[in-house]
Fold this sequence. Notes:
Layout: H1 2-10, H2 12-22, H3 36-39, H4 41-61, E1 64-69, E2 75-77, E3 83-88, E4 95-98, E5 103-107, H5 110-167, H6 174-228, E6 231-233, E7 238-241, E8 250-251, E9 259-263, E10 271-275, E11 288-292, E12 300-308, H7 326-330, E13 336-342, E14 356-362, H8 366-371, H9 377-411
Antiparallel strand pairs: 1-10, 1-14, 2-9, 3-5, 3-8, 4-7, 5-6, 7-9, 10-13, 11-12, 11-14, 12-13
Helix pairs in contact: 1-4, 2-4, 4-9, 5-6
Amino acid sequence: MFETLFCSMITILPDYLFRRYVQGKRIGHEITLYSVWYELRYGIVSCLMLTISLITLIFYFHPSSTSAVSTFRVLPILPEGSGRVAEVFVPLSLDTEVKAGDALFKLDSSRQEADVTTAKQQVAEIEGEIALAQGELAVASAQVEQAEAALKQAQDELDTKQELFERNANVVSERDIEKLQTTVDSRQGALAAAQANKELVETKINVALPASLESARARLQEAEVELSKMTVYAGVDGTVSQFVLRPGDIVNPLMRPAGVLIPADSQQERIVAGFSQIEAQVMKPGMVAEAFCPSVPFTIIPLVVTDVQNVIASGQVTAGSQLFDTSQAATKQGTVTAILEPLYEGGLDELPPGASCSVNAYTSNHDRLTSDENLGTGEFVFLHVIDTVGIVHAIMIRGQALRYPITALVLTGH
């Protein structure tokens, strides 16, 4: 409507003034309802052509979007395993502020507690075996000393008999020496067995039992970790929203999350907007934009485009059991996604996270007009026109902000 009124001021109005004051034709006489098309045909045709061109120029070089959302990040509240809720530490409310490390809820941990008790008993058993092996080592050491003494006694007797035999063969018989030699060999075998038994006990104390003890302690630590997983804590500072979990509920990390946690640093950061595909070549990072959000009436929020996605999400193909059909993707035309952040600090402080908005982006050729010396006259005028007609979009979004409360509260009956 605004474009039509503006174009009529420079087309239909001059045509009428020429007819009225140059040709002397008057409304109601020569210019009637039936002859207005014939009399003002040049102005009407020019107005329609200029209006369509102006609207096309405005909407192409100054894109607009009604699918803009103040996005925020959420974290699912999930345990690492399934179970039945035994205790809930968050009150029943829509929003509850929590700090990192605060307990949210606890699952039934009877099995995990039994595993911890069993692991502790295993550790105690192995520690008892180590103490018992210390006693066995003392016994083995005594047996080695006993075998060494018996061997020394038999060796001394053998040496004495051999000396006597060498001096006088009639005093000691060869049979006695053979018996003593056999006794010495037997005592040496007993000593070797005692020493081997001692080494076995030492190996048991120094290698086998410590390894078993470490394994038991590792199993105890594993059981304690599994027990600690039964209590779910907040990973970051934030807000637990719509937390309705209660004792007795079943929680499954794959099928039934416990709720969502909204991190404190994920709110009021940016607006995500989807623009038409025809504006893909116009949308560039650095463009100035404005947003009107119904949740903040009578307010225009200045923004800046910080990023433009270089792909259109509707064309993605994922592995599946069915072949991709382009007709399915073409039924809903995708949009070019752009990220907009506040131009000034605190620009989105009053905007609730998740609010929907309407966004206008503006093409600016100021730098090119002031620095490019190779611009021709026609291009110079064209770029000036592009920057100038952006004011139409600015007026439209401000008119929308002014009339929206009346339209939403009075005319629609809501």
